[in-house]
Design goal:
Blueprint lengths: L2 H16 L9 H12 L5 H21 L10 H8 L20 H18 L1
Helix pairs in contact: 1-2, 1-3, 1-4, 2-5
Length: 122
């Protein structure tokens, strides 16, 4: 698949996953919206987790440490500029360094909702 097509396919996933890095608490509606977007993607749960760890987390993690971080959402331009270049990286250990700054419970919540949504479509 050519890179631009892959980026176009990934942008909705990146947008959804980047919500986990905003400077705000997610509501039930937020969790459901993120899970719905991810469930609609072509990616498996393990692929989505890998995208979170290797592409989105390294680009967005600093927002979690910023006292006045982004809270409204990252623009699609920002996402393309900061996350798309991570596609060129073969492997990334950034998620291991400081992965503790990310609330893994959020991923577990999203993951369980994706499973439910996808099971209802079967």
């Amino acid at each position: 698949m050519n890179k631009e097509k892959l980026i176009k396919e990934r942008v909705p996933v990146w947008e959804a996953l980047s919500e986990l890095f905003l400077d705000q608490d997610l509501s039930e509606q937020d969790y459901q919206a993120v899970a719905s977007k991810l469930a609609a993607s072509v990616y498996s749960l393990s692929q989505l987790k890998e995208i979170l760890q290797k592409e989105v987390y390294p680009a967005c993690k600093s927002n979690l440490k910023n006292p006045a971080g982004e809270w409204r959402g990252f623009s699609q331009d920002w996402i393309r500029q900061h996350i798309a270049p991570r596609l060129d990286k073969k492997g990334c250990l950034d998620f291991l360094r400081g992965w503790g700054t990310f609330d893994k419970k959020q991923w577990k919540e999203i993951e369980s909702r994706i499973k439910v949504i996808r099971s209802l479509k079967d």
